[in-house]
Amino acid sequence: MLIAAVFAILAWSNEVYIEQVGDDSTISITQDGSGNSVGTELNPAYIGSGSNTVTIEQVGTGNSLTMTVNGSGTTVTATATGDNNSQTITCGSTVSASCTSSTISSVIVGDSNTTIQDLGTGANHTSSISITGDSNSVTHTSTNTGTTSASITVTGSTNTIGVTQSGTTAKAVSVTSTGTGNNISITQTN
């Protein structure tokens, strides 16, 4: 009986492992449901130094978020209202890598969605991913060293969206996907 009680407590836990370094950070994390995590004990979410503002809410159950952010002026907003959503937000690639003035947003309303934003190690990146629906996969990867922007909006289920940006010139893309089973892949380079 005691073992069952221990497992019940573990099943309802919300874990947050974060390593904050410094400067003007304001961090708010709300995990309302059960079984949510942000980082892991071995790999904490990390944020880094700079003028960072990070807000994470994961209201449903079974949501996860793995995050590395560093550099100057980074703002991250990640919301998952639903169950079993997964987000990976990276800006700099290591503890010492740069991230410059990025703005990263992921807003999810639904279940079993996956978002990945990997915005390189520098430059002025801006990205926003908005998902309403279930079982969608959205990836925005940028190594562009110029001004970069992406806005991806998905409404529906089982859609796969991928945007890759690289090079040195300014890049911008806006994707709006409505429906089921859409597969969109965009590559921007010099």
Written account of the structure:
- 5% of the residues lie in helices and 45% in strands.
- It is mostly beta strands and 190 residues long.
- The protein has one domain (2-188).
- A seven-stranded parallel β-sheet has the order 1-2-4-6-8-10-12, with no helix packed on it. Strands 3-5-7-9-11-13 form a six-stranded parallel β-sheet, with no helix packed on it.
- It starts with a helix and ends with a strand.
- The model is unreliable at 1-11 (pLDDT under 50).
Blueprint (SSEs and pairs):
Elements: H1 2-11, E1 26-30, E2 53-57, E3 64-68, E4 75-81, E5 86-90, E6 103-109, E7 114-118, E8 125-132, E9 137-142, E10 148-157, E11 160-165, E12 171-180, E13 183-188
Parallel strand pairs: 1-2, 2-4, 3-5, 4-6, 5-7, 6-8, 7-9, 8-10, 9-11, 10-12, 11-13
